Each structure stands twice: as structure tokens, then as C-alpha cells.
Amino acid sequence: MSDKAIATPTRTTEILKKYGFFFKKSLGQNFIIDVNTLKNIVTTAGVTKENGVIEIGPGIGALTEQLAIHGKKVVAFEIDQRLLTVLEDTLSKYDNVEIIHQDILKANVQEVIDQHLNDVEEIKVVANLPYYITTPILMKLLMNKIPVQDITVMIQKEVADRMAAKPNTKEYGSLSIAVQYYTEATVELIVPKTVFMPQPNVDSAVLHLKLRKEPPVYVEDEELFFAIVQASFAQRRKTLSNNLGRQFKEKWSKDQINSWLEEINIDSRRRGESLSIEEFTNIANMFYSKIE
Ligand code: SAM
User: Fold this and answer.
1) pTM
2) Atom 5 of ligand 1, residue of closest alpha carbon
3) What is the pLDDT of residues 62-109, one digit of tens each?
4) Cystine design at 117: which of 15, 52, 144, 220 (Cβ 3.0–4.6 Å)?
5) Are strands 122-128 and 150-156 parallel, antiparallel or unpaired?
6) Residues framing ligand 1 (Cβ under 6 A)
7) Using CA atoms, how far apart are residues 155 and 153, in angstroms rounded to an integer?
8) Nearest CA to 59 among 38, 80, 35, 34?
9) Interhelix angle for 277-290 vs 174-182, to 10°?
10) Do 103 and 237 belong to one domain?
11) pLDDT (0 to 100) of residue 22
12) For atom 18 of ligand 1, which residue has the closest CA?
């Protein structure tokens, strides 16, 4: 077996040829062919020999290899059966990698952690995600509250910007609040299309999500909180009064809603995009106190 890293154009082409592998666009298969990009991801993630790492979508093992070199143990979920034999070959010299042939959206991640990562201090998620399911994957990991320290993922730049966005920007929306309720989100690196094979149509970025021990705010009813957030961005150009009035029209009158907003010092003519997570919390807890 070659000593060269998997993530070089020649080695990747060699591996693809050897196994007659063709890319499935439907599985978001864009492999990284640049070792520097991978090293930057591993550095951003801060992977050390203390860490267990969960990877989603190892492909032919380009990132997995770097994670195996820097981390203690790697557990990687891969949906594509064809890649299992390839990975067995490309990663044969690493004895700290476990490939799980499962769809990450259906997998019981906690069970896999209990089984394979019970001897590590801290767990990180590091991945070059399949772009067609970026948001469902991240929301699943966050909402299931899996015990990880942080998540470092390559995703579409546009989605990374929305996840890390601050109020009063055009990227800020319900996705920003959902992600920032659970994490501190930062866009760390912008990655050019040229480091992928085949090249994707969109720009990419590395997003770092540090999981919070507790949400930054105290929300009485999370479901109501997220319903209010969703409703406030339902029509971006409309005021809070209009968006919330419409969402809750079966329950409360617009006048009632406006007066409650006034009570907590929020002008009902503001738009959702100007509200902080704390202000959304105040609205949610105020509405909660009015439910009979
Ligand atoms: N990690 C490799 C790299 O960086 O070169 C490959 C990344 S590629 C963008 C995404 C990988 O996710 C592919 O290997 C694909 O088969 C896999 N994948 C797609 N959908 C998946 C799912 N639902 N569960 C697990 N893996 C999935």
C-alpha cells in the first residue's frame, strides 16, 4: 500500500480506478483531494490523542486518515455499501478506526458511542458532510443532545453563514437561532471548490460549533419558543405584530399580542431579523404565561 496520503489527486484517482468507483451525486459525494485542507480542518477541530472522533461520510477515507493519525479513536458512519471494501483497504494500517455502515439520520448515535467510544475522555464530531442533508444531520445531533464537546464540519458556505449569523443581517433567521440555542457557532475557513473531486457547484466553509452546557437563555417551553421564532421569520418583510398575529390568531387577538410585546419593551413594529435570542425568549415566556 502507498505511503502517500489518500487526499491527493493521484492517489484518489488510483483508488477510484482500482475499485471502478463512480460518484453518486445523490449521496453528496465530493471527496477532498488536498491534504492541507484536511490538516486545517483537524487543527480547527483541535483533535488530540485524548479525543474520540465521530465522522459522518468517510468516503474513501481522506479525512478519516488524518483523524486516525491525530485522534485516539475514530468512528465513521458511511451509508454507501460500495465504500466499505475501499475503506478496509485504504485505512488498513490504522487500527483505531471503526466504520459503521448506517445512514446517520437513522442511526442511534448514543448507542454507537456507548459501544465504541466508552473509553475516551472527550468526543468531537468532525466531517465533510454530504451537503444535501447538512441541516437535518446537525439538528439531529444537537436536538438528541449527544455528549460531544464540539462539531467541526465542512458545509455549504451559505448554510454556514446562516447558522453563525447575528441579528440584523440578511443571513439571520430561524436556523441561526436553532443552532445558537445549542452552540456557539463560528465560520472558521472558506474553502475553494478546487479541493474537491468532483467539484461542487457551491462554495464551502468550515463551521465550528462549540456545544453549550446549558442554553444561553431560560425557555419555559421549547416548542412554543421555536414556534415563535419560526413564525417571526415566516414573512421576513412583515412586522412581529403581523407574523405573530397570524400564527396565533386562533388563540389571541393582535391587540393582545401587541400589548404583551409592549409590556416586555419590544416594539411590535420590529421585524424578526432584529430580535436577539434573549428577546425571543422573553416573548416565548410571556406567551407561555398567558396560556390557560
Ligand atoms: N469524508 C470524505 C472526504 O472528505 O473526502 C467524503 C465526504 S462526501 C462530501 C460525503 C460522504 O457522506 C460520502 O461518502 C457519502 O457516501 C456519505 N453519505 C451520504 N449520505 C449519508 C448518510 N445519510 N449517512 C452516512 N453517510 C452518508
Assistant:
1) 0.95
2) 31
3) 999 999 999 999 999 999 999 999 999 999 999 999 999 999 999 999
4) 52
5) parallel
6) 27-32, 56-59, 62-63, 77-80, 83, 103-105, 128, 130, 133
7) 6
8) 80
9) 90
10) no
11) 98
12) 57
